[in-house]
Amino acid sequence: MSEERVKMRKQLGLLEGVAIILGIIFGSGIFISPKEVLEKTGSVWGALTVWGVCGILATLGAMSYAELGTTLAQSGGDYHYINEAFGPLPAFLYLWDANLIFVPSTNAIMALTFANNVLEPIFPNCSIDPWSKKLIAAVTICFLTFINAYDVKFTTRVQNIFMFTKISALIVIIIGGIVWMAQGKVEHFQDGWAGTKTSVSDWSVAFYSGIFSYSGWNYLNFMTEELREPFVNLPRAIYISLPMVTGIYLLANLSYLAVLGPIGVRATDAIAVDFAIASLGWLRWCMPALVAIAVLGGLSVHVMTSSRMCFAGARNGHMPELLAHINVARMSPLPSLVFLMLISLIMLIPDSLTSLITYCTVVESFFTTLSCSAVLWLRYKKPHLPRPIKVALWMPSVFVCASAALLVVPAWSEPGAVAAGALITLTGVPAYLLLVRHPPQRLQTISTKFTHTCQKLLLSAVEDTKEE
């Protein structure tokens, strides 16, 4: 019997691809951002306009990523596209920010949100010790890391269940809103533009909040190599997911505003729960559990996909060699999963991650814009590159221009946050020169010994890159 090759298996089909995209998008955003969007736009129709425009922008970006994902058909997503289009330094800076800040901070916040939704129904009238939340969050991160490392196929099946559960929860909200409006309770839409703000800064923040809720449309691209028939299933998953998300988000926000009204949406800290209390009768008891499942599913997808980005960076020499190894028993990127798990656990220690996330939001948006602009640059730089899917150039052009415009306003309204985010990114330049371009011999020796030790502990080996 021939030995199995050390290589991650192609075991994700169209349904799993759709589940990954919907799983990460339908995380906590739709239960958090409606309040922020309404506050910054000032009116009902203004808020709904933002949700619709953000859906269109996300769709244009996702269509552009369909071309990138089929043209540069390797795992790694944004990192891989930036590396191919603009070179190793920008790609390393993206990894630097993503692996040390974006990914672990997001994991920590989602895990804490899950812990909060689990504990609040159990102790409804009690103050909850922060360390109780942190311990449950830590256990959740470790458990999801374990199942992602143990069996990718089982994980994707669980994510399919999470996806259908989350869609069901949002459909319940939509049906509740439709029934409410069918009874003639549409007074909140009669003067829907009243109170609309004119501040460009406020509208910019509203768009950022809306885009945050749509974030994740590019995460399937991190796992291109594990998709069966990626040239077919990657674009199909995108084409199915993004229109569905946009429609569900618009209808869900319409329902929120119809039932709670602008004042109720602004006042709530748990919009889905308050909506359920106001309109769903006995079903209100299910909503905290459904929100917790939504967040847990989003966290599971985030753990899975982000580890592939770390793996791809290590494979190109931009991260420690160990992180490019695969567990020989389960064929999963176990070292990358464990590395991101440890960084995420560290992120649970501070009492607040808000300032760190604020500093890096603009930087993350910048790299997404840069990655999408790779479509335009590669059309010019490598016009003869085989492109199974070729989108109209106006799609990435509109996305890049709109995203760039949104980047300008925070630089003017919050220069401190932008400067801090830029400073965090620029600290990656000396790290790149020292650790990638000109690593000291002593450091290389220590790294090799550490890699060999961890190989034995994690039963991992270098990926077999030979063609079958």
Automatic annotation (TrEMBL):
It comes from the Eukaryota. GO terms for molecular function: L-amino acid transmembrane transporter activity. Its main location: membrane. It is found in: Cell membrane. GO terms for cellular component: plasma membrane. InterPro entries: AA/rel_permease1, AminoAcid_Transporter. Keywords: Cell membrane, Membrane, Transmembrane, Transmembrane helix, Transport. It is a multi-pass membrane protein. The keyword Magnesium does not apply. Gene3D superfamilies: Amino acid/polyamine transporter I (1.20.1740.10). It holds the Pfam family AA_permease_2. The chain crosses the membrane at residues 12-32, 44-66, 91-115, 135-152, 164-183, 203-222, 234-252, 289-311, 332-350, 356-379, 391-412, 418-436. The keyword Glycoprotein does not apply. Belongs to the amino acid-polyamine-organocation (APC) superfamily. L-type amino acid transporter (LAT) (TC 2.A.3.8) family. This is Y+L amino acid transporter 2. The lineage of its organism: Eukaryota, Metazoa, Ecdysozoa, Arthropoda, Hexapoda. The gene is LOC106113862.
